[in-house]
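User: Sequence recovery, please. Input:
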């Protein structure tokens, strides 16, 4: 699977050029990317990076924090992870499918979006598409009259959740896979999904590009796929094999401790493409450069070699079980509530979104063991983050500064003052408190800036360092052994431009 992901990194580079040139994406008055001149000094590049900001659809997506991913399809009935061309629609027959149960599972975990598989690499469609018979309509489920996407999208809305779809471009079943006609079929399938099921907020493309039934591989028309999405559901982010959201680079659930949402991009002025498509490329077309699985994507060193920069935040996808699809043998291998909490700290708490996969079983339900872990995770997180101990505190006698830092609005912030890239913020709590978690958020809608910080507490009259970190971005969570103190200090040691701290939180996790 990893190998496929490496190959799409190359594919994305090419497709983004086309897409941005031909859709005007690169020409809008957009602060989500910026060019760098060949002679630009590093200081100036770094300052520019600090002012690259998320597009509104990326803000919507980032603030979801946790999305539930659902793998369910023909593979579930074959006990497979990846299907093959011999699979038969007759095998698809969930006995108790209940879309509401899936939505309730997401709610019980604290997720804000359901991202559902509409088609995996096997090509089996979970909605009654007009473009193949290899779908629910040829299955015994509801006598071929069922539509999972319809039921799931409605359940999401009923439960106040956003809804997204995973449509695999790789299709092991389609007889036209490997020809231009397949790209047309794929666009048509996208149109069906993006017009028939209400608002769609994320379209997730995997980069896997294996062989079809005739042994051919497809050259995907990414540009055309993106255009359909922007036209029909412009608010939706296009994830992973797309321009809005980047794959973190592993499927372990653990993001980087230094995670920049701004990464180097190439300013590609490809005149040939521009001329042949009769479009004006404007001031630059942008694409991420380099291997998205590297440990370092956005450091000063990386930026120093960049032709441009773009806002391209990270998504951490991980399954609650070893596999993406349900296998009975994995019923005892469901990640525990504690493990999920650890993953939460290492994804959401490291400037990423957590995309947590729940494989539905052959009944068409999320298994009880998985539900138990989801609920357990939320109980622990709710108990931890219930009370921000800094609420009601003061900063050098000023109540308002602390109120803004604890008001859950990242856009009201503290900053050390115009032009300064270092600074300290001391908060005095109304009384001595014991805590073991710190939460920090930048006013990230104005850019990601902090490069290095420490957290100190005054213990017995002495300031001691209790934890430290590099990037903050949308959110940074840090865990440490319990400390008791009344005064706490955030010291920013380095930033790309004047830091704006939107949230500062201090918490105590429940015992055990
Ligand atoms: C991978 C796919 O090949 C897996 O089957 C799964 O869907 C995962 C989320 O993406 O690349």
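Assistant: Recovered sequence (512 residues):
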């Amino acid at each position: 699977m990893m190998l496929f992901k490496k190959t799409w990194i190359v594919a994305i580079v090419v497709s983004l050029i086309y897409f941005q040139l031909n859709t005007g994406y690169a020409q809008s008055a957009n602060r989500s990317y910026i060019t760098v001149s060949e002679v630009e000094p590093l200081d100036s590049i770094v300052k520019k990076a600090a002012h690259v900001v998320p597009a509104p659809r990326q803000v919507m997506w980032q603030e979801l924090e946790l999305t539930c991913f659902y793998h369910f399809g023909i593979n579930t009935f074959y006990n497979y992870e990846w299907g093959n061309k011999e699979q038969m629609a007759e095998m698809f027959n969930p006995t108790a499918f209940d879309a509401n149960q899936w939505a309730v599972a997401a709610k019980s975990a604290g997720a804000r979006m359901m991202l559902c598989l509409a088609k995996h690499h096997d090509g089996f469609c979970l909605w009654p598409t007009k473009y193949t018979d290899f779908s629910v309509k040829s299955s015994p489920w509801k006598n071929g009259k069922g539509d999972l996407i319809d039921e799931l999208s409605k359940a999401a809305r009923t439960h106040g959740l956003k809804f997204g779809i995973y449509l695999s471009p790789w299709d092991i079943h389609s007889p036209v896979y490997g020809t231009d006609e397949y790209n047309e079929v794929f666009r048509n399938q996208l149109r069906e999904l993006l017009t028939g099921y209400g608002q769609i907020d994320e379209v997730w493309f995997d980069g896997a590009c294996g062989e079809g039934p005739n042994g051919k591989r497809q050259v995907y028309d990414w540009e055309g796929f993106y255009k359909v999405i922007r036209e029909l559901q412009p608010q939706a982010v296009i994830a992973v094999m797309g321009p809005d959201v980047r794959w973190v680079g592993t499927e372990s659930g653990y993001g980087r401790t230094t995670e920049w949402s701004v990464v180097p991009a190439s300013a590609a002025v490809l005149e040939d493409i521009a001329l042949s498509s009769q479009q004006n490329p404007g001031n630059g077309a942008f694409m991420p450069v380099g291997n998205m699985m590297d440990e370092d994507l956005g450091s000063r060193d990386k930026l120093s070699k960049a032709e441009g920069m773009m806002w391209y935040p990270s998504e951490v996808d991980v399954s609650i079980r070893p596999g993406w699809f349900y296998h009975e043998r994995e019923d005892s291998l469901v990640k525990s509530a504690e493990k999920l909490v650890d993953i939460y700290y290492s994804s959401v708490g490291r400037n990423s979104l957590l995309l947590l996969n729940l494989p539905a079983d052959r009944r068409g339900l999320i298994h009880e063991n998985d539900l138990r872990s989801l609920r357990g995770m939320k109980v622990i997180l709710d108990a931890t983050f219930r009370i921000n101990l800094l609420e009601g505190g003061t900063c050098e006698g000023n109540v308002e500064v602390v109120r803004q830092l604890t008001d859950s609005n990242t856009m009201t912030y503290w900053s050390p003052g115009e032009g300064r890239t270092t600074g300290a913020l001391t908060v005095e709590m109304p009384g001595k408190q014991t805590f073991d978690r710190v939460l920090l958020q930048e006013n990230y809608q104005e850019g990601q800036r902090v490069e290095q910080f420490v957290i100190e507490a005054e213990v017995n009259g002495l300031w001691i360092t209790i934890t430290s970190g590099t990037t903050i971005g949308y959110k940074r969570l840090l865990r440490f052994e319990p400390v008791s103190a009344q005064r706490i200090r955030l010291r920013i040691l380095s930033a790309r431009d004047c830091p704006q701290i939107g949230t500062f939180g201090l918490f105590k996790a429940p015992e055990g």
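The first strand starts at residue 33 and ends at 35.
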